Amino acid sequence: MNRPKILVAEDDSDMRLSLDVCLRVRGFDVLAVDDGDDALESLNLGTPREYSLLITDIVMGRMTGIELIDKVMKKFPELPVLVITGYNTRETAEALKKRKRNTVLYKPFSEDTLLCEIKRILPSFMLRGEV
Q1: Model's pTM, two decimal places?
Q2: Fewer CB within 10 A of the end CB, N or C, for the chain?
Q3: How would you class 116 by CB atoms within 10 Å of its CB: exposed for 0-12, middle for 13-18, buried for 19 or more?
Q4: Order of strands across the sheet with 81-85?
Q5: Could you count the other beta carbons within 10 Å of the beta carbon of residue 85?
Q6: Does the pLDDT of residue 131 top 80, yes or no?
Q7: Nearest to 82 by CA among 65, 63, 64
Q8: CB burial class (10 A; 0-12, 13-18, 19+) of residue 55?
Q9: What is the structure's pLDDT at 20?
Q10: pLDDT score at 127
Q11: For the chain, what is the largest distance between any 2 Cα atoms, rounded to a whole number of angstroms?
């Protein structure tokens, strides 16, 4: 049975590792990268629909999460995106609203909160009781 594959783009190494471990323990296949450029490269190198979800930070080096979302919306419009950020600003909220990306978790957040959002985004996987 195929496990959903989640691509995580997070520049903070501790947060990236925490997300990786949390998701793997719950049965997800995870690729965690440290910026938007690496995330986009992974998406471009993958097979169509290889990833079930992109989790991205907003403030990262080389390519921001907003830039990544813009590129993903053009090339992979069906890919759900969960935004995680430590910056709860009006500018961030407006940028995400403009892109119709309202699924945002503000750091710090609990594992339960993260998993509830993933369950909402990927309900068919969760309904099978695999997580």
Answers
A1: 0.89
A2: N
A3: middle
A4: 29-33, 5-9, 53-57, 81-85, 104-106
A5: 18
A6: no
A7: 65
A8: buried
A9: 98
A10: 47
A11: 42
